[in-house]
Design goal:
homodimer, alpha/beta, Rossmann fold, three-stranded mixed beta sheet, globular
Chain lengths: 386, 386
């Protein structure tokens, strides 16, 4: 299969390229390297140093014996994306090329605008490029479980759901409530893709993924193949941040009381899920929505797990309680449906979060002085209410 | 009261400025004159010739004896909007500065991107400018009944609605289903404003308006005060287009069987509704959603009315059936709630559509040769499925 990955330089884009190459697929990717710059912008860096695009391609050649086409380009320029699709002729396009940080989107009006413009125009360009080149191309778009917020109903794996409103029945788009401009940009993209599906029949898998943790996948066996790993207050996700804090002996930055419940998965399980969805495409013209996660934890439970594993690894950490910078419910119902990936064969979770944290800590310890250098970037400084 | 109108040069912006001035309010407006250029771009023009911004300000001075501040500027540049708000210190900002044509947004990827970028960034800039300058400013945003599509439930006048989903109860954002990139951009803006209201308490009136028809309001008593009047396949709305077709003796371009039902109102009633909403602001921090219309017709009923009135005015027209260029339901349930405006005192409709059409025809007949010049732009050429 021929797979084009938009945003191939990112935390998920890179290991997905490796996974697909290992499976024998032909892979090309586009990235404008924006995340590298934007993480620098907030005074931080990837915990694990990552090679340049050229070095990445060489490493793949040396270690895996595979060829990888890495295009430096910005898909918000239609011509860039259109040219890549016409040249590479993908069967599947995986769309990761979105600004992916909620706090980054909330910094100020400039960052809010950037997030909306970047994310929406990338997706619109993808819709039109696929529609023109070959409407049978399978579009795999990374959304987020955060599009739903924390509803009182069970979160289905479908674009539409039956509802009763004021005594009448209707089939409605699954209700969303997002908690940042970033999350809203993803909701808007979901709506835009859904509209494109209805008008032009574009075959889509819309993945609603929970926060991912981890440094390793089956293919990341060499430091030259590492993917980026963010841990700062803007770009880091909660469990990865806890891991860095454990290594640095800092209190774990739990936001508020930690009752916020989310659906998580390891990097390895994220890759396995993506592989399954790419290799098992939906019917032509179908809009498939998948909730991609393996475990549900509250942020507090995660902190307790992190504290326990850190302690077993000889690191003593406390759970700190940081004023929650976000506007979100502290205690709530949370039940996402999770049928599609297990039906495709995902044994979930394939990795135990405690074991996985041991692996992460080992990887991070080798870069402890690097982490210490960016320590100041860990506390959340972007506050929603400001 | 001090009212700042974004998009003051437009079909609604201009008569609203006149209405508010007549009511004794202080009015300033911003416009980048984009609609003038974009209508030219599709080979058309306003049926009624409209003066330049300078001439408009002079006409207001001469005829009404009022001062009007008309700023030529683009609110997608944050500094332009921020400066205007800090300088003018409005109590209310009315936001009409959006690309407002569904077919225009569907022309191609460039127009899709422009519509999203222009509309979303204007609204984001407004949110941030108000939040910084004075969060008590009342934001009045023009949305469209088209955000809802044609649901099976009664369309409420609220941002949220109680729903049962899979046996569970929740309060959800009122479901939307839009039929073009333009309509989706309005849905996205509604969601963005709603989020801004929840986080920063911005006081908002979100108006869901039906298509407007008419050339006159109480203040438009002189040709120098005319507002623009679009009738082409891209910029014209259905009843205004039927009026021009009647004058030209062309068959009325009814899209498909004409079963599409929508909520309409006259230009005068639109102005009266806006005045009532501006003079009766919601509570501080409230998000008020208003369905703004006075009558509900199918597109077929409108064609029959137009044919009847045209005939009484000595114009013989046939109802033509044009392939519907859009993707929309042809026959459907349609029941929007309409309580808020009548409770504020709107006697609806204040104008009878048949009488109003007589007035429109009279205004248009004076410009018959001008209309004939742009005749070729009337047939719909932008097809959703293309």
């Amino acid at each position: 299969m021929r797979v084009l990955i938009l945003g191939m330089d990112g935390y998920l884009g890179w290991p997905l390229a490796l996974r697909l190459l290992a499976r024998g697929h032909e892979v090309a990717g586009i990235d404008n390297l924006y995340t590298r710059k934007a993480v620098e912008e907030v005074g931080s860096a990837s915990a694990l140093p990552i090679p340049s695009p050229e070095e990445r391609v060489h490493a793949v050649r040396d270690i895996m014996g595979k060829d990888l086409d890495f295009i430096i380009g910005d898909i918000t320029k239609y011509s860039v994306l259109n040219k890549a699709i016409r040249k590479f002729k993908p069967d599947t396009v995986v769309h990761f090329a979105e600004q992916r940080s909620a706090p980054y989107s909330m910094i100020d009006v400039k960052h809010a605008n950037f997030t909306m413009r970047n994310n929406l125009s990338g997706t619109l360009n993808l819709i039109y490029a696929v529609k023109k080149a070959n409407p049978k191309v399978h579009v795999v778009k990374m959304g987020t479980m955060g599009e739903y917020g924390t509803p009182n109903f069970d979160i289905p794996e479908s674009a539409f759901v039956d509802a009763q409103i004021g005594g009448k029945s209707d089939r409605i788009v699954v209700p969303k409530w997002a908690g940042s401009w970033y999350h809203w940009s993803k909701v808007h993209d979901t709506n835009n893709l859904l509209f494109a599906n209805k008008v032009w029949g574009i075959t889509t898998t819309d993945i609603m993924q929970g926060p991912v943790y981890g440094t390793r996948t089956k293919e990341i066996t060499d430091d030259r193949l590492f993917t980026r790993f963010d841990f700062d207050g803007v770009w880091g996700t909660v469990f990865n941040r806890y891991c860095v804090e454990s290594v640095l002996g800092m209190p774990l930055t739990q936001y508020g009381k930690g009752g916020q419940t989310r659906a998580f998965l390891s990097l390895e399980d994220s890759m396995e899920s993506l592989r399954l969805l790419i290799e098992n495409r939906p019917n032509d013209g179908e809009y498939r929505v998948v909730n991609q996660f393996t475990e549900v934890y509250s942020v507090r439970e995660l902190a307790l797990i992190a504290k326990e594993v850190a302690s077993k690894n000889g690191m003593s950490v406390e759970i700190g309680e940081v004023d929650n910078p976000r506007v979100e419910a502290n205690e709530h119902y949370y039940k996402p449906v999770h049928d599609i990936l297990p039906a495709l064969g995902l044994k979930s979770p394939t990795r135990n979060i405690r074991d996985e944290m041991g692996v992460i800590l080992k990887d991070l310890q080798k870069h402890k002085s690097r982490l210490a250098e960016y320590k100041d970037a860990i506390m959340p400084e972007v506050r929603w209410k400001d």
